[in-house]
Amino acid sequence: MSEYAELYQQVILDHNQSPRNFHALAGDARRADGHNPLCGDRLTLYLEVRDGIIRDIGFVGSGCAISKASASMMTEAVKGKSPDAAEALFRIFHALVTGETVSGVPEVADDDARLGKLVVFAGVRDYPVRVKCATLAWHTLRAALENRGAVSTE
User: Fold this and answer.
1) How far apart are CA 111 and CA 91, in angstroms?
2) What predicted TM-score, i.e. pTM, was given to this entire model?
3) For a designed S-S bond to 36, which of 42, 127, 148, 153 qualifies (C-beta 3.0 to 4.6 A apart)?
């Protein structure tokens, strides 16, 4: 097994078994529900934005290891960022897992550095059916930021 594949497995397993920010937020947090009908993944994302910064974020739900790990890592990546920075990260991550080109995001050449540990999801693009698992939390984040109540990967 390649070093990259081993790292991928370790990171996915770690975040699946011990997801970060796996909790609901109380109060007036923004909320969005996400569903991937193909795999059965379901999650609810909670988001607290104050003074133009994502101050807190959490999720609850169930799904495959890739979906849960992606949600866990996404919450870590966007906490403390502005909604615009979170949107830029969404677009870079989406391009990573789909193999598409990123447009309209400044400093695209530095994507790997901006993604950090999220680069382990690059291998997902080789399994198109798993792309929806990896991006569900990200689409749900976008829905919460835009105050849309729900999103589906279909």
Assistant:
1) 10
2) 0.90
3) 153
